[in-house]
Write a structure and sequence with these properties.
single chain, Rossmann fold, Alpha-Beta Plaits, five-stranded antiparallel sheet, 10 helices
């Protein structure tokens, strides 16, 4: 689990973190989301123990991240993975095993596991300096996982991945999240929406909101979107609704999307479509995209 309480950090006159607080875990994939300059990388550096805080309390797996025991439990992937150009992928993973204290007898199994899991078998003997950007990201991730950490910190991990590699990478993160806590920093909200079960939204060094994706959509929604499908006469929704033009579907069905800020919108919608010889097969609330939710939560603060 990661616990952050009232975290502050200054760089000269720049107040990068301003009382940041959140807690996530103990397992799963969570996003640390915010626009550029929100303080995400500074937060990850403090969580990894490579940067100290000016004030506040941080615990990673119950330990101060500066303690050697905490670092053994931690895997990190910076935005620019610092791979040694003169080592092969397999040699680099062996080095990282030794650095993390993995027993020599267990290292071949650990290396083989991450080469396979991260899709690196085909380049295992290639020098890291000769890897493409996508394979560099995979090698960096494998190095962060080879010692089976309990917490994994990833800073913009999808950078350099092409559209073919990205879905496999997201699936890999979800697999790791079954037994460890993965915290993914990103400003690409649509990408995180496909990988994470929840997120911490931050801006200007402070927490804006935290929760599962469903909870965040509920927090950020100033109205709700619904979709209705029916046969027969168009229903009259009454006042308090914004309606799109109906769509005509196969088999005589129609579809209408509408939004409302009414507190009992779904009940009103159900009553409006009843009767009139109308056949209804769908009344459903549609989730807002996380990007739209974040824009509403942060928009007035920038």
């Amino acid at each position: 689990m990661i616990e952050v309480d009232s975290l502050h950090r200054r760089f000269g006159t720049v107040h990068a973190l301003r009382g940041l607080s959140f807690s996530v875990g103990p397992t799963g994939v969570w996003g640390l989301l915010g626009p550029n300059g929100a303080g995400k990388t500074t937060t990850l550096r403090i969580l990894s123990g490579t940067l100290g805080a000016d004030a506040g309390r941080v615990r990673v797996g119950g330990l101060d991240p500066c303690e050697p025991a905490a670092r053994v439990r931690l895997g990190t992937l910076p935005q620019r993975s610092p791979l040694p150009s003169d080592l092969s992928v397999r040699e680099y993973l062996a080095f990282r095993c030794a650095l993390a204290g993995v027993p020599a007898s267990e290292r071949p199994t650990a290396i083989a596991r991450e080469l396979a899991r991260c899709g690196l078998d085909s380049v295992r003997d290639r020098l890291c300096g000769a890897l493409s950007s996508g394979f560099r990201q995979r090698a960096g991730l494998a190095a962060s996982l080879v010692h089976t950490p309990r917490v994994v910190l990833l800073d913009e991990p999808s950078a350099g991945l092409d559209p073919v590699q990205a879905p496999a990478f997201r699936a890999l993160l979800r697999d790791v999240g079954q037994s460890a806590l993965v915290l993914v920093s990103s400003h690409v909200l649509a990408e995180v929406e496909q990988s994470c079960e929840g997120a911490v939204l931050m801006d200007h060094g402070a927490t804006v909101a935290q929760g599962t994706l469903a909870e965040l959509r509920a927090i950020g929604a100033d109205d709700a979107a619904f979709v209705i499908e029916w046969q027969g006469a168009r229903p009259n929704l009454g006042e308090g609704w914004r309606e799109a033009n109906p769509e005509t579907l196969d088999g005589g069905w129609c579809r209408l999307r509408a939004r409302s800020a009414l507190p009992d919108a779904q009940d009103r919608l159900a009553r409006a479509v009843q009767g009139g010889g109308r056949l209804v097969r769908r009344i459903e609330r549609e989730p807002d995209a996380l990007e739209a939710v974040f824009a509403r939560l942060v928009g007035g603060k920038r």
